[in-house]
Amino acid sequence: MRIGYSFAFGIVAVGLIGGCTKDIPKPRPSERSDVSVGLPPAPDLAKKPYEKLNADGSYTVEGLLRERDKLIGESVTVRGVVKKLQKCPPPPPPPPPEADALVEVIDSDVPPPPPPRPPRTCNPPPNLYLIDAKPASKRELLVYGSMWSVLPTLGDGQEVSLTGSFDIVSKDGVFLRQAGLLVLDDLPAPAAPAVEPGPDAKP
């Protein structure tokens, strides 16, 4: 009896499997589309040539930043166009001297003191970006200098040659730039104006 049941169950199972196979529709072949898709051209991965130095021997901004690893910690001269110049606001004018003090200064043989220097720095610190004159280069060099450096004498759009220390962090730690930055040195303090000897001066 067990053999009969097993044989009957096998027939039923084969019948069910065969029935399921007949009911599954066959996939139709996909139709190819004739729509053309416009893709952008493949990017040019080849390194484009660039000018490392200017005609006067100074670095271009592109050349300096590409040679970063070789020039870190060195004094370099780079030429470019000033952009995004930021200076400290001018200090308020000093009060006018009193009449008696003015007479004493005129009658005195002691030379007058040099004019007071502006505050060395402010918040945010004075800085600018230097770019190459040729528009093909999009690199920008951060230049940091105090109000005692040459930076206050510059103007936006001016083409200049600047000499400073090339590094990734400024000496006071205010600026940090992995691409590299140029730190300008302070200029010497202005000397006191010379005083011409008066008629009563001893030889």
Structural commentary:
It is built from four helices and five strands, in the order H-H-H-E-H-E-E-E-E. The chain is α+β, with helices and mostly antiparallel strands. The protein has a domain at 49-89 and 118-189: Nucleic acid-binding proteins (OB fold (Dihydrolipoamide Acetyltransferase, E2P), Beta Barrel). Strand 2 and strand 3 form a beta hairpin. The radius of gyration is 39 Å and the shape is elongated. The model has no long low-confidence stretch (mean pLDDT 79).
Secondary-structure element pattern, one letter each: HHHEHEEEE
Q: How are the strands of the largest sheet arranged? A: 1-2-3-5-4
What summary fits the major beta sheet? 5 strands, mixed, barrel
Q: Give the helix/strand class.
A: alpha+beta
User: How many helical elements?
Assistant: 4
Count of beta strands: 5
Helix proportion range? 10-25%
Q: Per DSSP, what share of the residues sits in E-state strands of 2 or more residues? A: 15-25%
CATH-defined superfamily of the domain at 49-89 and 118-189: Nucleic acid-binding proteins
